[in-house]
Structures are given as structure tokens and as C-alpha cells.
Inverse folding.
């Protein structure tokens, strides 16, 4: 039976519109309970023996949470203890409107079979649908709908009695008013309504759940220091009006890593460029947390300040007072002043669960403790827990619930424990979570799109593919590499020219647009390499087998083939899908040995020599054009094969062959970028590297000046040249140090869609156009580029999203974000392993270099370990040496102490 | 306009009947045919009404939209009329056949309704000189059986009565920029005062007498008719003569008087019926188009 009913809704789009949607009510929506005999349902979700040991409800019961309970207490609902819950459609819809992340988590719970969560579509049920009444607000109507549904359930379960031994429903709410109204009708229909806090507390078997309760704002036993610490946030309406009128600006809040009292707000400007506003002092920061979207009011020009050069780590409330003193005595340097402002309101909180450690309170019985997040930019969080002693020494996750204006720290609640701090797996999990790296195993849906094994090349695959199996192709990679995505060949043609081919794994052949596999890869964006672990972008079958261009197997490839003369000038370029059969998978060292060994003269070696010769010419040409050679320290760990603990570490060595492969990859990328841009002006996915603003070079110039070396930063070429000649006698490492600093001056290279931008220049490579084509196994951008190129040469068909510049632009944003996070995760992983390495080493003496000088600390780099750390002059137990700080040329008039590795430990350990 | 063929003998029969105040269908000269009114029939309009008069059926829908006031009257809203002569009503309207009639009807409706004496146009003003409500009155002819003007005017009055305009607020920010804010309560709306909205009474001169609410047959016997719009107080707001024949001043006077009388008598029961329906609220049984 189908009933139809229309209801009206007015919305506004420009003017005023009345929208009418048909709303069909039906009577074939089942209750989902196992105990029900009336409903003709095929499968049930809710169990008959729905027993949760609650001292308030001794009978079996189903829970119906209202919207606010779901929104605020999702952590509790996620717990395995909470089962047999009815999620009403009203609740689901409201949650969806109010918070996308919570909605996603709720959906995940519902899909979990063991949780017995049932979605009841009460809005379409004939008996539970209600219409909004005159004078009733939308919220009141929804609350009423929830009550009506609860009432229906209790009646329904009663009538279908027989074997239901007093099965009841319990409405969970955290709103007193709603509870009262529910009790009025609940008395008649025998359903109970309980405040969620009380219910959770009544779960006698699981006391630990109480910790996961989010603190509600009206919690009376709040630690309230009588003084209001922060100014009130403005209401959203005033913020919006202010932004419109220009008195406030909107931006992303970025806390400083070095100084907890300082932050910048990044204002997205026209196009790519944005401006930054400095925020200083607790009051002005006004409870904003890293990554929040905030409204900022600029201070009058005479109150503008320069970024402080103090390194401050929040040690607790006691320090508050002297901090303020320090602020006052700030050196007033007119030139260094920056636009300064204060946060007047929060537009959007960007809170996520944070990983970190619990600082157990000194007072023994206290249930309030401070939590120190692993990310230094996040303030400490005050949580309540009764299991502090067990949680101490563990990595835990905590969510922020709110930050009242009279509290020094935000309030939060415990979400879950990850495990003991310092354990490798746990720490790895922490840094994956902290960097938002999707690292779950691939789902069945994703795996279902993998090719069936055993896989072989079929004749259909050969259509539109060139057979290059006869060529002497080989791959050169770092040792232990299993995802080989590129291979090379070089041979002499009959006309005396050279044919050079770059063959890239044809991943886009296996990952078809739009399927679950593709979506997952697009979301992951990149493979993340941690020390001793790889988090794949595509399932292992593809990454290490079918797409990996291993030796002596037939593999599908996408080839870029040039005809060059001996001066490395490109005479002809062509792209084709192909089949190759690599003759050898070499490491850089092996390849180097073959080239150097004059006795060897086989095809592979000849091919390598040809490549190497051309690569050298290419590199020289590139550097002449102004490409930068920058330096950053990369360390490799030698792992113990049994314990996977690092036993030794070395900085990466670069060999000729490294740069040989690199040169051809760059060349292929540039050729492909040109081709896809010529073909698709509007929707080519390219990569650019903007020139840094001159102010970025300050640190580099200052550092160079300290040794009386001049660095020119006008153009990339000038910079490259002056870096080449910047040498100090008796200080061979100086040049490398300058290059490390120069790297930090650079902007991030980003992916973008050609239709959305008009500046394509790649500053670092000094190339007018660039993209990523050569690593489709580990980067999603390359897959898109492959698809574009395949369409351009007629080897594959296109699809709408590929040609939609807005969709592509959105994809680029995700890829840029994932790449950035992957980089950070990688660094954090290295840092952690360095820590592990030192754990067993004790005190070592190594040579270190001062990178930056701050007012109360120096940043020191130890090249041998690629380790960078902050050394404070005044630590707790040592008296600060008298120091004179000069802002102009940061320098301190104390001899730089030999850096001791221990000083660096606080960096991660807290 | 839809016409019927009437033979001479029939004409004489009709003429003689009217002379004796007895019309073919048994009515007196100043009687209307059976009339049915239903409001709120089209859910996606802001106000609507369906009126059947004999076999004539019209549907009126009103949509309120925000527009810019006319420069000459910055503090008033206005009405827009469109008459759609659907081919459902009569095959003659097929293609562009009904266009001429539609324009003629809507022109008359402008004259009758779009002035501040009929509708309180000031109440349609949101922000003088900048925003006002524009009421788009769409008339759809469903069936033609004579006396379109009267049926349309009654339907418009009923639809205006039924119209619910969402209540809006003007918020001003610090800079003086104005923004329209809409209440999120669908029941929070403004009603129009329809007390002064006139109804049209069409009088057909048949022989020496005149009749109200002429059927198509009677119309065929008539040489000319007079359209009079009358308010509930009996004030004549507009007259118009249609038809090929001529009317002598004396009969014009007589017809005007009759029109005033009939019009006045029409308003009271109409308002009563409308209010009754309104009071039914949700209990109202919808008839719609299949009833």
C-alpha cells in the first residue's frame, strides 16, 4: 500500500521560492526487531535479548538517541558495548546537515553487523510521520518526531508481545526539556527517557565508558577559575556582517610550532596568493585551535608587532604571568613588523581526535588530567578519566568538546587508547593518524576490481599497443624496491641517432575511472613510505606485481620514446601504450658498476652508458637554464632483520645513476606535460612550483652574511650560480648548509588544473611546464596524466570527470594535501626511528651546526644523523648563561655548545 | 471566444423567455448559475483557487516573488496578470488561437485589480524603492461556457484571499547594506486584505432587457454587453463595453444599477464561503480536479 502526501517547504535562492516535494508515506517499513512477529521483514537487526547491564534499566531495551546525543557522544556510541540502537531517519538527516564527519562515523557504525544499529525511516512511516505545526520551530518538530517514533516503538513492541519479555525502548537525550515532554507521553506508553550522562553512568559493567562521554557545556562541576580568561566569541551573524563590510577577515588559523603564544592566520587571496596575519598572546589567540577557520580583526597599525624569536613550549598555567612580561619587552623593530590581529570569532572548528600522551595529575585521586597532543601546534587538553594510571605511558586519542572562556585549556574526552608509547607499531599508528593518512586495509569492494589471477596479456590488450618486448629495457631503482614504475632503454638507430625510451607502468589500464579502486586511490593520493613500512596507494597485487616492471616478465607500459642526436637534442617525440619485457632490474649501485666496468659490453650496459652520457648533457643544459640543485638531508636506516630496530643509519648517497634516471624522468614529465596541455588547454593536470616571495630568502641571506658570502636571489639562475660559488675555506659543509636553508625558502610545488590557473612555471626545475607522469603506482596525479595522455593519443576513451576542470581542481587540492601530509609523516617516521636509534646509544659526541638562533634557544643540525633539534639556553635545572641577542643578525655571544643528542629528545618524547 | 450556433427560432424562444424573466435554464435575469469554489488547489503556488460557474471552469494561481518597485510608486508592490487560454477549454484556442482573448482578458484584469483601491499595494512593499512583492496572477481557462470575466474575477478574489506571502525581514548591517531575511517557519506568513477587491459583473443586453451570467446561447442572442467591476460597497470601479452592437445611455444606466445590485449581493456570500473554508483548516477535504 502506498500513500502519498505532499508537504511544503520554502527556501531561498536569490529571491524567495516555494518548493514542494512529494512525500510518500508507506506502511511497509518494518521495525527491525527480532522479537517482532507482526512485521514481515526478511532480516532483523535488533536482537531479542538486548541486554546491556544498566542499573537504570534492568529490562532488555533498545536505545533511541536523539540528534544531540549522536552529535556529541558519537565516541560512546562507537564503543562495542553499545548495541541494539535505533537510529531514526530524523536523527540521521539532522546529523548529516550538522556534521559530515559524525555522519560518516554513524554510517560506519550502522554498517557494522555486530553493533546491531537499525535505521528506522520514521519520516516515511505512515504512523510516525508528523507535520510541522504552526509556531513550532524545525528543531521542536524533529524532537517531537523522535518522541512520536519512540512512542510508536514502545506500542509496537507491546502489541507484538507474546515472546517479548518486557522489551522496551529507551529514549536517550541530553536536553532536560525534551526529557520532560517525553515523560509526559512516556508515562502513558511506557517508554523511558533518560539523560545520556545518567544512562552511561548506569552501565555498571563498563565504567570506562564514562571517560568517553563528551563534557556538555552546562557541566556544573567545571573547574572555574573565577576570572574570565578569554574575550567572548562573536556570534556568527555578526562575524558574517563584519566580513562583508571588511572589518573582519576570514582565514585559516595556523599555530606556530615553536611558540605556543603565536600563530598566523592565512587569508586566502585572489587566486593562489594569500596574506598572513600575525596573532600574538593568549588573549588574541582567543581559543582558536590549529586549522580552525576564524574571523580576525586587524589591530591598529601602531600595535603591530614582529614575530617573536622566542621558542616557547607550554609548560603549564604557572608560566602564564612571566609570559606576559616577555611580551611587553618585545624588541620593537619597525621593519620586521607584520600585520597583527586578534581572533574575534570562530567560523568553523576543525577539531579531530588528537593523539598524544596523558600528563597524570599530581593529585592522586584527581580524575582531571591534562593531555599533551603529539602535534605541538595543538594546545593541551583537559580530560576526565578514572583510569589515569593505566593510561599513563600509553598513546591515547582525545577529542575536544569545547573551550569555555574561563578555562585555560580546552575540555575534551578520552576516545581510545592506541597502546604503549614508544612501541614501534603504536607510534607508527599515531603518526599515520596524526597526518591523516588513510591506512586501513583495502576493502572488499576495492579488491573486487583487481584483475583475476593468473593474469596474462590477452590479444585484446595488444590492440592499440606496440610490441616493444624485443627492446633491451632495464630498470634502475633503490635497493629493495618492489614497486618499479619506470624502466629505460637506449639504442642506436640506423641513421646514427639515438632512440631513448622511458617506459612507465600502465596503471591506468588496471584502474578504470570511477570504480571503487579508482576512488580509493584518488582519496589516498599517494603511497606513503615510512621507515620499514609502505602504505600503498593501490593494492599490493598491482603495486608489487602486475604494474611493477620487474625483469623477465611481460608487462604493460606507457612509453615515451624520443629520437635524439648525440648532443641530446630531441628530434622526435612519440607516446604509445606498449608491452615490454625488462631485461634487468638493477639497483643504482649495480648500474653504476656496470657502467664503470670496462670489461662488460652487453646490450644492457651499452644501453646504460648511452643513457648516462645523454643524462649528463641534459643535466648540464638544465642547470644552465637555472634549475636549482638543492639539498635536504635524507637518512637511511639499516634495520635489524629480526627486531626491525634500526641498528645503523647513514645519509643517502647520490650516485651518477640516480641522476641519470632522474634526468629522463624529468624529460618524460616535461614532454608529457607539453603534450597534454597542447591537447587539453582547459583540463590538463600540471605541476607548478611558484617562485618564492623575496622575503622568504631572509634566513638564507642572513646565514650567508654571517660568513660574508653574498647570495643573489633575483632569479633562479642567479640563486643557483651564487650557491655554486658560496664556499668558505675550512668549512666544506657550509655550502650544503646553505642549500638546506635554500630548500626551506622554497614554496611547495603543487598540482593544478591548467584551466584554473595561468602561471605554469616550475621554479626549481626552471621549466615552463611540468607534470608528473612517471610514478603512477605511487602517485594518483600520474594516473590522471596517463589517462589524459591516453586520450590524446587515441589509446583510451575519455570520461566526463576527466574533462571537468572544477572536479579536477578539487582532486588537485586533495592530492596536494595528501602529498604534504605524506611528506610530514615520512619525516616524523624518520625522526621517530632516529629516537629509537639513540635510545640504545647513550651519549654521543657529534659535530653539529647552528641553523637558526632564537632569543632563548638555538636550532642545531647534526648532519650525520640528519637530526635537527632545539637547544634551550635556560633549562629547568641549569642557570641561563648571560646572552646578548641581536635581532638584526641573529647571533648570540656565547660559544655554541657542542650539541648533545639528549637535548633533542624532548622533540618527540615530551 | 467560444461560440455556438443558434437558429432564429431558438433566438426568438430565448428572447421571449428573457422578456418574461424566465431563462432557458429556469433562472431569473439577475441570477447566477451554480458556482463552486475551492481554494488552495495548487500546492506550489502561494495562493490558488478554482472556480466553476455552470460549465465554465477557471483556475487561478498566484505566485509571490521579490521584485523592484515601479519608479513612480516606490512604496507599492504590483500585480502581473497572465491568462492562459488552454486548448482544453475549447478547440478554438489551439495553437495561438487563444492568444488574442488572453491578452484582452489580462488587459481588463490589469485595469480592474492593479490599483491601490482594489488591493492594498502598500502592504506589498518590503523596502521602498528597492524591494517589493510582485504577485504573478496566472489564470488558466479550463472550460468555456460563457461569462469568463465573472468567473475569473471571483477566482482571483478567492486566490488573493488564499495567498500566503512568506514574511520577510530586512536586516541592515553596519555599512548600511540591506539584506532580506526569510523566516524559517513556513507558517509565518502575511495575508492580504481582500475586502476591497472588486468582482466583475457582466451584463448582457438581450432584446430590451439584460441578463447576468449569460450562457453561450444567450450570448449569441446579445448584441453588446457591459462589464462592470463592483466592490463590496457597491462602488463601480471600472466599466467596459464589449460586443459589436450599441447601447443607449438609458440602458447603460439601468445596467450599471443592476450590476451594482448584483455585485453587492455577490460579495457577502463569497466572503462567507471563503472564511468557512479557511476555518476548516486541515480537516478540509480536498476535491481537486478529479472530484
Amino acid at each position: 500500500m502506498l500513500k502519498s502526501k505532499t508537504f511544503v517547504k520554502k527556501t531561498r535562492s536569490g529571491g524567495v521560492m516555494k518548493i514542494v516535494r512529494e512525500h510518500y508515506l508507506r506502511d511497509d517499513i518494518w521495525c527491525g526487531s527480532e522479537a517482532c512477529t507482526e512485521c514481515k521483514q526478511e532480516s532483523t537487526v535488533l536482537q531479542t535479548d538486548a541486554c546491556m547491564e544498566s542499573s537504570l534499566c534492568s529490562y532488555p531495551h533498545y536505545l533511541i538517541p536523539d540528534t544531540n546525543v549522536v552529535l556529541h557522544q558519537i565516541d560512546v556510541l562507537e564503543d562495542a558495548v553499545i548495541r541494539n540502537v535505533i537510529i531514526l531517519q530524523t536523527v540521521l538527516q539532522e546529523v548529516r546537515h550538522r556534521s559530515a564527519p559524525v555522519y560518516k562515523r554513524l554510517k560506519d557504525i550502522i554498517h557494522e553487523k555486530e553493533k546491531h544499529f537499525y535505521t528506522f525511516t520514521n519520516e516515511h512511516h505512515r504512523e510516525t510521520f508528523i507535520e510541522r505545526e504552526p509556531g513550532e520551530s524545525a528543531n521542536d518538530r524533529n524532537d517531537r518526531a523522535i518522541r512520536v517514533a519512540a512512542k510508536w516503538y514502545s506500542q509496537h513492541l507491546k502489541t507484538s508481545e507474546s515472546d517479548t519479555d518486557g522489551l522496551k525502548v529507551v529514549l536517550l537525550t541530553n536536553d532536560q526539556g525534551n526529557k520532560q515532554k517525553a515523560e509526559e507521553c512516556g508515562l502513558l506508553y511506557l517508554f523511558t527517557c533518560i539523560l545520556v550522562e545518567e544512562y552511561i553512568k548506569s552501565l555498571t559493567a563498563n565504567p570506562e565508558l564514562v571517560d568517553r562521554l563528551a563534557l556538555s557545556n552546562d557541566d556544573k562541576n567545571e573547574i572555574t577559575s573565577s576570572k574570565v580568561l578569554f574575550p567572548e566569541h562573536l556570534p556568527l551573524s555578526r562575524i558574517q556582517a563584519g566580513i562583508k563590510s571588511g572589518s573582519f577577515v576570514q582565514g585559516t588559523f595556523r599555530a606556530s610550532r615553536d611558540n605556543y603564544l603565536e600563530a598566523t592566520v592565512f587569508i586566502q587571496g585572489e587566486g593562489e596568493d594569500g596574506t598572513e596575519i600575525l596573532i600574538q598572546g593568549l588573549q588574541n589567540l582567543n581559543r582558536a585551535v590549529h586549522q580552525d577557520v576564524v574571523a580576525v580583526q586587524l589591530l591598529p597599525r601602531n600595535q603591530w608587532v614582529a614575530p617573536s624569536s622566542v621558542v616557547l613550549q607550554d609548560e603549564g598555567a604557572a608560566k602564564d604571568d612571566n609570559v606576559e612580561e616577555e611580551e611587553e619587552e618585545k624588541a620593537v623593530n619597525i621593519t620586521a613588523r607584520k600585520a597583527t590581529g586578534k581572533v574575534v570569532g570562530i567560523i568553523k572548528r576543525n577539531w579531530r581526535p588528537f593523539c598524544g600522551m596523558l600528563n597524570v595529575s599530581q593529585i592522586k585521586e584527581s580524575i582531571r588530567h591534562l593531555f599533551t597532543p603529539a602535534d605541538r601546534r595543538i594546545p593541551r587538553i583537559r580530560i576526565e578519566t578514572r583510569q589515569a594510571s593505566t593510561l599513563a605511558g600509553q598513546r591515547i586519542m582525545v577529542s575536544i568538546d569545547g573551550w569555555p572562556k574561563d578555562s585555560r585549556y580546552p575540555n575534551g574526552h578520552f576516545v581510545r587508547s592506541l597502546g604503549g608509547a614508544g612501541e614501534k607499531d603504536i607510534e607508527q599508528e599515531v603518526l599515520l593518524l596524526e597526518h591523516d593518512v588513510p591506512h586501513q586495509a583495502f576493502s572488499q569492494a576495492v579488491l573486487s576490481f583487481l584483475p583475476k589471477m593468473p593474469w596474462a596479456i590477452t590479444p585484446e590488450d595488444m590492440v592499440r599497443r606496440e610490441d616493444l618486448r624485443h627492446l633491451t629495457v632495464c630498470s634502475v631503482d633503490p635497493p629493495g624496491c618492489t614497486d618499479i614504475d619506470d624502466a629505460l632503454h637506449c639504442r642506436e638507430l640506423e641513421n646514427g641517432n639515438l632512440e631513448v625510451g622511458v617506459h612507465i607502468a600502465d596503471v591506468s589500464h588496471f584502474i578504470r575511472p570511477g570504480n571503487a579502486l579508482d576512488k580509493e586511490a584518488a582519496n589516498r593520493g599517494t603511497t606513503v613510505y615510512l621507515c620499514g613500512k609502505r602504505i600503498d596507494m593501490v593494492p599490493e597485487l598491482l603495486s608489487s606485481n602486475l604494474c611493477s616492471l620487474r625483469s623477465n616478465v611481460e608487462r604493460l607500459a606507457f612509453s615515451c620514446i624520443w629520437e635524439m642526436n648525440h648532443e641530446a637534442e630531441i628530434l622526435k617525440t612519440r607516446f604509445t601504450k606498449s608491452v615490454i619485457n625488462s631485461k634487468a632490474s638493477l639497483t643504482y649501485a649495480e648500474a653504476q658498476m656496470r657502467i664503470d666496468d670496462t670489461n662488460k659490453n652487453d646490450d644492457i650496459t651499452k644501453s646504460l652508458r648511452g643513457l648516462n652520457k645523454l643524462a649528463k648533457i641534459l643535466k648540464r643544459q638544465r642547470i644552465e637554464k637555472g634549475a636549482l640543485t638543492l639539498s635536504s638531508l635524507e637518512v637511511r636506516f639499516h634495520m635489524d632483520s629480526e627486531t626491525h630496530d634500526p641498528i645503523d643509519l647513514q645519509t643517502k648517497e647520490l650516485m651518477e645513476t640516480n641522476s641519470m634516471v632522474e634526468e629522463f624522468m624529468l624529460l618524460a614529465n616535461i614532454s608529457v606535460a607539453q603534450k597534454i596541455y597542447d591537447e587539453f588547454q582547459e583540463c590538463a593536470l600540471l605541476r607548478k612550483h611558484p617562485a618564492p616571495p623575496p622575503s622568504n630568502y631572509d634566513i638564507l641571506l642572513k646565514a650567508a652574511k654571517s660568513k660574508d658570502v653574498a647570495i643573489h636571489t633575483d632569479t633562479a639562475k642567479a640563486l643557483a650560480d651564487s650557491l655554486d660559488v658560496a664556499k668558505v675555506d675550512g668549512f666544506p659543509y657550509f655550502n650544503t648548509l646553505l642549500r638546506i636553508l635554500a630548500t626551506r625558502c622554497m614554496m611547495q610545488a603543487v598540482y593544478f588544473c591548467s584551466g584554473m590557473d595561468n602561471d605554469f612555471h616550475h621554479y626549481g626545475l626552471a621549466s615552463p611546464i611540468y607534470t608528473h607522469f612517471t610514478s603512477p603506482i605511487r602517485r594518483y596525479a600520474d594516473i590522471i596524466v596517463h589517462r589524459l595522455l591516453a586520450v590524446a593519443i587515441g589509446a583510451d576513451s575519455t570520461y566526463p570527470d576527466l574533462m571537468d576542470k572544477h572536479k579536477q581542481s578539487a582532486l588537485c587540492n586533495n592530492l596536494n594535501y595528501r602529498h604534504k601530509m605524506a611528506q610530514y609523516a615520512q619525516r616524523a617516521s624518520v625522526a621517530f626511528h632516529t629516537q629509537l636509534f639513540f635510545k640504545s646509544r647513550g651519549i654521543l659526541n657529534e659535530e653539529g651546526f647552528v641553523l637558526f638562533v632564537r632569543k632563548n634557544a638555538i636550532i642545531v643540525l647534526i648532519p650525520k644523523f640528519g637530526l635537527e633539534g632545539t637547544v634551550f639556553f635556560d633549562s629547568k635545572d641549569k642557570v641561563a648563561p648571560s646572552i646578548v641577542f641581536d635581532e638584526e643578525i641573529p647571533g648570540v655571544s656565547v660559544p655554541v655548545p657542542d650539541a648533545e643528542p639528549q637535548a633533542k629528545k624532548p622533540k618527540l618524547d615530551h | 471566444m467560444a461560440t455556438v450556433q443558434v437558429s432564429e427560432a431558438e433566438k426568438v424562444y430565448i428572447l421571449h423567455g428573457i422578456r418574461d424573466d424566465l431563462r432557458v435554464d429556469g433562472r431569473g435575469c439577475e441570477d447566477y448559475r451554480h458556482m463552486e469554489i475551492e481554494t488552495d488547489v495548487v500546492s506550489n503556488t502561494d495562493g490558488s483557487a478554482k472556480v466553476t460557474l455552470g460549465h465554465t471552469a477557471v483556475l487561478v494561481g498566484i505566485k509571490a516573488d521579490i521584485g523592484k518597485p515601479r519608479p513612480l510608486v516606490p512604496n507599492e508592490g504590483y500585480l502581473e496578470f497572465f491568462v492562459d487560454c488552454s486548448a482544453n477549454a475549447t478547440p478554438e484556442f489551439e495553437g495561438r488561437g487563444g492568444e488574442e482573448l488572453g491578452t484582452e482578458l489580462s488587459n481588463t484584469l490589469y485595469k480592474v485589480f492593479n490599483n491601490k483601491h482594489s488591493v492594498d499595494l502598500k502592504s506589498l512593499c518590503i523596502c521602498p524603492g528597492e524591494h517589493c512583492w510582485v504577485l504573478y496572477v496566472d489564470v488558466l481557462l479550463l472550460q468555456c461556457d460563457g461569462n469568463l470575466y465573472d468567473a475569473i474575477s471571483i477566482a482571483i478574489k478567492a486566490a488573493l484571499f488564499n495567498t500566503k506571502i512568506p514574511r520577510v525581514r530586512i536586516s541592515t548591517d553596519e555599512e548600511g547594506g540591506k539584506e532580506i531575511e526569510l523566516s524559517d517557519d513556513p507558517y509565518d506568513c502575511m495575508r492580504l486584505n481582500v475586502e476591497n477587491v472588486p468582482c466583475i459583473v457582466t451584463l448582457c443586453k438581450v432584446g430590451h432587457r439584460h441578463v447576468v451570467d449569460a450562457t453561450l446561447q444567450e450570448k449569441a442572442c446579445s448584441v453588446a454587453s457591459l462589464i462592470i467591476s463592483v466592490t463590496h460597497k457597491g462602488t463601480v470601479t471600472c466599466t467596459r463595453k464589449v460586443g459589436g452592437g450599441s447601447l443607449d445611455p438609458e440602458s447603460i444606466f439601468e445596467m450599471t444599477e443592476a450590476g451594482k445590485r448584483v455585485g453587492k449581493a455577490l460579495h457577502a456570500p463569497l466572503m462567507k464561503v471563503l472564511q468557512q473554508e479557511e476555518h476548516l483548516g486541515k480537516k478540509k477535504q480536498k476535491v481537486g480536479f478529479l472530484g
User: Anything to note?
Assistant: The longest helix of chain B spans residues 249-280.
